[in-house]
C-alpha cells in the first residue's frame, strides 16, 4: 500500500516544520542553560576555579571547589550535547531545503517562525 504523493509531501513538510521548531527550542535551551550556569556560579568561586586551573595545582581540593567543578562540567557537557543536536538538526534542515522543493522550504521557514514565537518568551521566564 503506497501513500499518495500529496500525503507524502504533506508529511514531509510537517516533519521539517517540527524539526525547525525543535531547532529553535534547542537554541533557547542552550541560552537558558548558559544563563543558569553563570548565575549559579559565584564570581569568587569561578575566579578561584580559573586560578587553580591556571596553576595546575595537584593538591587536594576543598569540597566547595570540587562541587563547583562538577557542576561546571555537567553544565558544559549538557551544552555540548545540545550543540551537537542543534548542528545535526540544522544540517538535516539544510539538506531538506536543498531538495529544491518549495513546500519543504516553506515548512522550514514557517517552522523557524513558529519555533521562535513559541520558544523565545521562555527566555524571559527565569
Automatic annotation (TrEMBL):
Q: Where in the cell is it found?
A: Late endosome membrane; Membrane
* UniProt cross-references to Pfam families, sorted A to Z: Ctr
Residues crossing the lipid bilayer are 6-26, 72-97, 103-123
Domain of life, source organism: Eukaryota
List GO terms (cellular component aspect): late endosome membrane
Example GO molecular function term? copper ion transmembrane transporter activity
Q: What is its main location?
A: membrane
* Family matches, as InterPro entries: Cop_transporter (IPR007274)
Keywords of the record, alphabetical order, are: Copper, Copper transport, Ion transport, Membrane, Transmembrane, Transmembrane helix, Transport
Membrane-protein topology: Multi-pass membrane protein
Please state which protein family the record places this protein in.
Belongs to the copper transporter (Ctr) (TC 1.A.56) family. SLC31A subfamily.
Question: What is this protein called in UniProt?
Answer: Copper transport protein
Q: What is the lineage of its organism?
A: Eukaryota, Metazoa, Chordata, Craniata, Vertebrata
Amino acid at each position: 500500500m503506497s501513500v499518495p504523493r500529496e500525503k507524502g509531501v504533506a508529511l514531509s513538510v510537517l516533519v521539517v516544520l517540527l524539526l525547525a521548531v525543535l531547532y529553535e527550542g534547542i537554541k533557547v535551551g542552550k541560552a537558558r542553560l548558559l544563563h543558569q550556569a553563570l548565575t549559579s556560579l559565584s564570581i569568587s568561586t569561578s575566579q578561584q576555579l580559573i586560578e587553580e586551573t591556571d596553576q595546575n595545582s595537584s593538591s587536594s581540593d576543598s569540597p566547595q571547589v570540587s562541587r563547583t567543578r562538577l557542576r561546571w562540567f555537567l553544565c558544559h557537557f549538557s551544552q555540548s550535547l545540545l550543540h551537537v543536536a542543534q548542528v545535526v538538526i540544522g544540517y538535516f534542515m539544510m539538506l531538506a531545503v536543498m531538495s529544491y522543493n518549495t513546500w519543504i522550504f516553506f515548512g522550514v521557514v514557517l517552522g523557524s517562525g513558529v519555533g521562535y514565537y513559541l520558544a523565545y518568551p521562555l527566555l524571559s521566564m527565569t
